[in-house]
Amino acid sequence: MSNQLRTPVRRRRLGALAAVVVAAAVTATGCSSGSSGQQQDESAPLEVWIRQDAGSPAAESAEALTKAFTEESGIEAKLVAVGVNDFETKLQQRTAQKDLPDIVINDTGQLGNLVTQGLVREVDREGVAGSGDLADRAWEAAQGYDGKYYGVPFNSQAFALLIRKDWREKVGADLPSSWDELTQLAVKFTKEDPDGNGKDDTAGMVVPGGTTRGYLTWWFSTMLWSEGGDFVKKDGDGYVAAVDDPASVKAVEKLQAMFCDSKVVQPGASTADSATTHTVFESGKGGIYLTGPYMLPRFDGSLGKDKYEVVAAPPGAGGEAAALAEGENVYLMAGSANEKGQQQFAEFAASPAGQKIGLGLDNGGIIVRLPVNTTVDGAAEREDPRWDVFQKVYDEHGRNAPALPNWATVRQISAEGLNGVVSECSRDVAGAMGELADEIDAELEKQGATG
Asked: What span is annotated as the signal peptide, if there is one (predicted)?
């Protein structure tokens, strides 16, 4: 997830500027057979960007991926690991310099931003070698509002519950079978001294409830959908806000109650990001954490794998389980001098060979959390059945964010609206969600995404 510009005029100016810059970049060298008009050279090297910190195990896995591609194809590929917090800034700088990288491996949630700014090429799904082996849900996350594809799937994930098993046994509770029971378990973890230290210092639910990069929306999506609510819903050929629908309002009321009534969330939850919540869980201060599979190696080391269990999030009042599905795509950036090489890289990254490198079995650098290639069994490769829980959640209950022209902006607006009702306990939820719905509808209209 990434920071979003919240000023509509500024967003429009940036999009217009980027489109002009890219147009200039892709036509500067004259006419040719490239889709953008860029002169093509099938031996031209590729610059590959990935959203990872340089020197990290994940960057090492990405380096191994690019080297394996070069050995396979004969095309030189250079990896650039761009830090998580600097990625968007540096990409915009390169846009202004009319010098985009050839490949960007980035979040599925950034697809709308990239398409709106004209920074990526359309992908012919059927023309991608091995496309039939890639999960349909992963392809869905590479699809834009217009129904076209703008990336090749590379990595997927879904979210499940990490529950302190030792705490659950200490308070004598069963695994929850509904979100209401999950909240009841959180109450026990908060009030019944599950760690046995005689202090009132445990939180039942660990929640990244801050607004930075839309974290609260990101976390709440799974709960909201399970409770039968939604942020937006289809309306003819477009979308309309759904946060003020009755099921959504009830879900937000339950969220507010976690913060304000039962007070099962950790102190400071309304301003916390995931870096903070990771620490809360692994330090033994929180008992239930809805997060992704990428945290297992860290928590195994810091907390101990015997201390917690991995469980699919249960159904809510909506009667069905749902879980946020995310991932990363390989984006073929506009203006490349080697479009054929771009596609070859994407195909290799999504192939069984590329996916297995991304699992990070040799160095722990996980850049493929759940394989998008259905011929690769990630849990079997890792010899860890807990990963299969996440895979089944993704396959059976995973749900991508809606394919809006720019979902990231709606996510940010939603996070701010939700944060208002958990930070101010006296706020009327129905009224606040009505106001939020108006904001979302206004944003949808700006994006041209209304029916």
From this structure: 1-28
pLDDT tens readout for residues 344-391: 999 999 999 999 999 999 888 999 999 999 999 999 999 999 999 999
Greatest extent of the chain over all pairs of C-alpha atoms, in Å: 75
- Cβ contacts of 315 within 8 Å, gap of 6 or more: 177, 178, 179, 226, 321
The tokens for 353 are 């060979």
Q: pTM for the full model?
A: 0.89
Strand partners, 373: 134
- pLDDT at position 33: 59
CATH code, domain with 313? 3.40.190.10
The pair of structure tokens assigned to 25 is 């970049």
DSSP-derived secondary structure letter, 400: P
Exposed/middle/buried for residue 32 (C-beta within 10 Å: 0-12, 13-18, 19+): middle
CA dist., res. 259 & res. 242, Å (int) = 23
Domain with 249 in it: 160-324+405-446
Residue bearing tokens 């050279």: 41
- Asked if residue 355 lies in contact with residue 376, where contact means CB atoms within 8 angstroms, the answer is yes
Spatial separation of the C-alpha atoms in residues 124 and 258, rounded to whole Å: 45
* 5 confidence band (pLDDT: 50, 70, 90): very low
Report yes or no: 234 and 402 within 8 Å, Cβ to Cβ: no
Half-sphere exposure of 207 toward its Cβ, with a 13 Å CA cutoff? 32
- DSSP calls for 215-280: HHHHHHHHHHHHTT--SEEEETTEEEE-TTSHHHHHHHHHHHHHHHTS--BPTTGGG--HHHHHHH
Distance CA 213, CA 218 (A): 9
Asked if the structure places residue 364 within a domain, the reply is: yes
Do residues 180 and 140 share a domain?
no
CA distance 79 to 68: 12
Same domain, residue pair 330 and 320: no
Is residue 323 within 8 A of residue 397, CB to CB? The reply is yes
Domain assignment present for residue 150? The answer is: yes
